[in-house]
């Protein structure tokens, strides 16, 4: 039997994970100096980020959207200047999605330290 504290904590973690990706994308937009903010939402049980695009179908996934924003800002060096550099960037982005999304926000801070 779950107590109300267990349920509250689970809901809090779920809400935090959902909003964490959206906050990261909004921060990336700001860092890149993109003037026109995009519309972000989430979909599915795992709350995968979605970027609404007026000119094309929506983009789905944190890495896909992040790479799109970097290209939109004409900052390709952020994705790596060489094959090895691009591989390292992709490795860290993959790590972010596969490893960090399954932890609570307070655990993520410890993992990244």
UniProtKB/TrEMBL annotation:
<dbReference type="InterPro" id="IPR042450">
    <property type="entry name" value="EEF1E1"/>
</dbReference>
<protein>
    <recommendedName>
        <fullName>Eukaryotic translation elongation factor 1 epsilon 1</fullName>
    </recommendedName>
</protein>
């Amino acid at each position: 039997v779950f107590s109300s504290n267990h349920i509250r904590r689970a809901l809090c973690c779920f809400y935090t994970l959902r909003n964490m990706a959206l906050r990261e994308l909004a921060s990336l937009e700001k860092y890149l100096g993109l003037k026109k903010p995009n519309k972000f939402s989430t979909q599915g049980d795992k709350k995968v980020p979605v970027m609404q695009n007026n000119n094309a179908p929506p983009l789905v996934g944190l890495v896909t959207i992040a790479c799109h924003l970097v290209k939109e800002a004409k900052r390709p060096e952020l994705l790596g200047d060489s094959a090895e550099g691009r591989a390292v960037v992709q490795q860290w982005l993959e790590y972010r999605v596969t490893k960090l999304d399954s932890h609570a926000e307070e655990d993520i801070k410890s993992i990244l330290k």
